[in-house]
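Need residues for this backbone.
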């Protein structure tokens, strides 16, 4: 560290006493570092780095670049650029980068009348690893707006054939698929698919009508555009 410090002193044409006055670090401390009697702690390294307008990592020898800007100009890959952006966001705003993974977007699901089901994979959606979904669908229509799921939102789905009453599920009706709150009453052999919009009547299925219906997933999260 002290060698880097001497280089910066020479480059800036200043003396130990100048740095001492600006940082509040006693001259004797610099002398101890030079003789190897002690090593600088992080708080003092930060003061010196700020004085010379360099990274702490440059002083400690962990980086060959004096500033983030120098490092930025040396980058030539998306991976390194993304890492730099994450570090800058954390330093500037305290935003911690999150781990992400890709979830297949299989198509769309009706938030209104059922639409034809398709599992042709169109693309992938990147989300935080805290969302444990098997796939996602684009919501179509306005029947789930009171659950804050609007037309065009991405709905994340876990594969399951059984969910609790009142949960939002993806239901296959013949070859059509829809997204609704599900209520099943086994004693009455009745299934109700309830919209979250008062302009839509509940979809009620009884007895043999249930043979054409299959629950294929549970909605666990959704993603909306910020307007």
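Answer:
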């Amino acid at each position: 560290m002290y060698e880097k410090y001497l280089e910066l002193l020479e480059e800036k044409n200043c003396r130990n006493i100048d740095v001492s006055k600006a940082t509040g670090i006693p001259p004797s401390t610099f002398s101890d570092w030079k003789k190897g009697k002690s090593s600088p702690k992080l708080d003092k390294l930060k003061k010196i780095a700020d004085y010379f307008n360099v990274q702490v990592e440059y002083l400690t020898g962990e980086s060959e670049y004096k500033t983030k800007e120098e490092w930025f100009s040396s980058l030539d890959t998306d991976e390194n650029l993304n890492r730099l952006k994450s570090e800058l966001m954390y330093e500037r705003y305290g935003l911690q980068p999150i781990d992400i993974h890709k979830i297949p977007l299989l198509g769309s699901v009706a938030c209104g009348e059922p639409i034809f089901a398709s599992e042709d994979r169109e693309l992938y959606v990147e989300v935080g690893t805290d969302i444990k979904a098997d796939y996602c669908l684009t919501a179509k229509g306005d029947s789930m707006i009171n659950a804050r799921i609007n037309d065009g939102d991405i709905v994340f789905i876990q594969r399951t054939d059984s969910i609790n009453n009142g949960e939002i599920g993806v239901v296959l009706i013949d070859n059509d698929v829809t997204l609704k709150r599900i209520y099943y009453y086994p004693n009455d052999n009745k299934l109700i698919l309830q919209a979250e919009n008062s302009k839509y009547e509940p979809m009620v299925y009884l007895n043999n009508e249930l043979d054409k219906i299959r629950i294929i997933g549970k909605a666990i999260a959704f993603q909306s555009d910020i307007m």
